[in-house]
Structures are given as C-alpha cells and as structure tokens.
Write a structure and sequence with these properties.
The chain has three helices and no strands. The longest helix has 42 residues.
C-alpha cells in the first residue's frame, strides 16, 4: 500500500510541475488574484487522477489483494479466539453443573 501511495504522489508531483510550468508560461490560465497556487494544485489533482487510475491499475489490484488477505487473516484469528472462548465457557459450565 505504501508503494502505491508513493507512486500516486509521484504522479501528482509530476503533474504539479507540468501544470505549474504551463501556468507560468501562460499556456494554461492563471487563478484569480492570489488563488494561483490553489488553482495549480486543483488542476494538478484533476489531471493526475485519471492518469493514476490508468497507470496504477496493476499496483492498485496488488494492494487490494494484500488488504483482502490481511482482513481474512484477522477474521480467522478472531474466529479462532471465539471458539477458544466458547470451549472454555462450555468446560466451566459443565464443571459447574457436575458439582
């Protein structure tokens, strides 16, 4: 997941530099008044999102598989703990009734 995040940030940084250059040279429009920095960031986000969606598809799928495996492991551990607690509870009740 960290790798995917870093790759996504890299794509955003690249888009930010390109958009900043386009705005600096007057190819892309500037923001109104003092909002130029926010304009460049928003435009870079809008440009980087579809690029990340297409370029990082395999990495996103790989991260998704890792997350699903981790969730399945945690669920299995919780089920194992529940069954141990149930067994201990049943044993203590059986001993209490036998007395």
């Amino acid at each position: 997941m960290l790798r995917y995040t870093l790759m996504r940030l890299g794509i955003f940084a690249g888009c930010f530099v390109v958009v900043w250059g386009l705005v600096y040279f007057g190819i892309a429009p500037r923001g109104l008044g003092a909002s130029n920095g926010m304009w460049v960031i928003l435009l870079a986000l809008v440009v980087s999102a579809p690029i990340s969606f297409v370029v990082l598809r395999k990495e996103r799928d790989r991260a998704s598989v890792q997350i699903v495996e981790k969730v399945d492991r945690v669920k299995a551990n919780l089920d194992a703990n529940r069954s141990q607690e149930d067994a201990a509870d049943d044993t203590s009740r059986a001993q209490g009734q036998a007395s």
